Amino acid sequence: MTYNIGVALPAGDPDTASGNTVDDLVSLAADAHRSGLRSVWFSQRFDTDALSVAAVVGHAVPDIAIGTSVVPIYPRHPLVVANQANTAQAAAHGRFTLGLGLGAKVLLQPTFGTDATRPIRHLREYLTVLDQLFTDGTADFHGETVTAVTPRSTRVAGAARPDILVAALGPQALRVTGALADGTLPFLAGPRTLREFIVPTISEAAARAGRRPPRIVVAVAAVVTDEPTAVTARIAEAGTFYTRIPSYRAVLAREGLEGPEQLAIVGDEEHLARELERYRQAGATELVLTGTAVDGPDNRARTWAAAAALQDAAAG
User: Fold this and answer.
1) CA 245 to CA 240: how far, in whole Å?
2) Torsion of CA 279, 281, 287, 290, to 10 degrees
3) pLDDT for the residue 275
4) Which pTM was predicted?
5) Looking at the DSSP assignment, which residues form a beta bridge with residue 187?
6) Where are the alpha helices (DSSP H) in the chain?
7) 231: pLDDT strictly greater than 60
8) Where are the chain's structural domains?
9) Are strands 96-101 and 163-166 parallel, antiparallel or unpaired?
10) Using CA atoms, how far apart are residues 50 and 44, in angstroms rounded to an integer?
11) Structural contact between residues 306 and 269, judged by C-beta atoms closer than 8 angstroms
12) CATH superfamily of domain region 5-167+222-255+289-315
């Protein structure tokens, strides 16, 4: 098995600010491609829109895979998300992956006024609608949490069906994802949790549904640096939000950890290689490095170069 390593953007690099955020993201994606990385992934934020950025970058930067990691399904209707995903897929000429998540309840109600009391039912119905749209170009679905009826085809010329990944961490979400999607995008799930829980749970569900083995695209904070203590402290500070979310607390507890910084890969190139190999051995089919610029642009470049070198060595 060879490595497939990508990076999450933005990388937090303060020296990329040109005065235009989209220009900066295109530039970073081009840097990632030149570094030899296989993919770039965009998170949904309260400023830039991940699916819009994926379309722009996918069109502007050739020969690198593009994905969202992740777009919360609340309060976005699946018809709207499918339109955006098809547009991104056509713009990227087939290199786009749609990464979705349930979102954090701590944000959903106060921010959007959204009722997220039946998340597993909503996820199942949401993925069912997306399957209809991407397979047939139409939908006629009347569920308990989702209604989707198309008066005409939603197909976009040049848009092949994208893979759908879900940031599933709990057993019910993993089973629904295995049955109805193409894989998962776990974050804060360490090697033991992957090996003992996530990979077997989703793989069994996929097999029962007659689907291909799922993609396991694992996001992990990683920085190659000579100052690991200071960088780890920065990651700990940035990760306090996740300790307020029950699903992330649960997945950390499965690993026997308390904070996100305890999973961060921070150290030299040899340390990065050892730790990423643990994830690969645990069942990760792809890796996405996050927070690579928390120690500045020079060590971001150093981290990307080290990751690309691991790919090259495995390929050789």
Assistant:
1) 10
2) 10
3) 97
4) 0.94
5) 219
6) 21-35, 50-60, 78-91, 105-112, 119-136, 171-180, 191-193, 199-208, 228-238, 246-254, 269-282, 297-315
7) yes
8) 5-167+222-255+289-315
9) parallel
10) 5
11) yes
12) Luciferase-like domain (3.20.20.30)
